[in-house]
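hey so u asked for the seq, here:
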Amino acid sequence: MLDGSDLYALDISGVSFVKACGGPCSEGCVTLARIGDGSWALGDSKRPDATPLRFTTEELDAAGIDPARFGLSV
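ran it, structure tokens below
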């Protein structure tokens, strides 16, 4: 399993982020991208220049974030 330093060592320059909105997307949305096997980057559409946070699949699950809501498979 990857740890925090391993996750931030992954290159995310070519990944595509997908939005999931809980309401009107005019206020900004959470964005998610698969960045490796069992690893994800979570961003904020209101702050596209901010460095996305990175999580394992287990961490996303523990936080109640389901990649399927973004149209992504685990």
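Residues 4-9 form the longest helix (6 residues). The first strand starts at residue 18 and ends at 20.
lmk if thats what u needed
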